[in-house]
Every structure is written in structure tokens, then in C-alpha cells.
Amino acid sequence: xxxxxxxxxxxxxxxxxxxxxxxxxxxxxxxxxxxxxxxxxxxxxxxxxxxxxxxxxxxxxxxx
Length: 64
Fold this sequence. Notes:
Elements: H1 8-34, H2 39-43, H3 46-60
């Protein structure tokens, strides 16, 4: 990785890239998990409430 000073815009772009990568990995892992548990079991997971909360926020800012 290159070690140099970045401007604020470049830092934000890099952070967005990291978030996109992490989001994709989380989606893949969630899909794998769903292959191994029932919908009822998934509904009981605390992370489902947080996933739904994130979806509501995303919809509220017009990203859907």
C-alpha cells in the first residue's frame, strides 16, 4: 500500500471503497448463513433488526 498524504476528498473516497467492500462481504456471508438456518431462526437474530434499520435509513435518504 502506498504511504503518502491524501487530501480529504481522497480519504472519503477510500473510506467509501472500504465500506462497499465490507458491505459486499457481509452480504455474501449473510446469504451463506441463510442457506443453513430457517427463516424463523433468522427472524430471531439480533442482527436482522440492525439490517432492517440500515435498510430503513438507506431508503430514507433515497439510496434504494
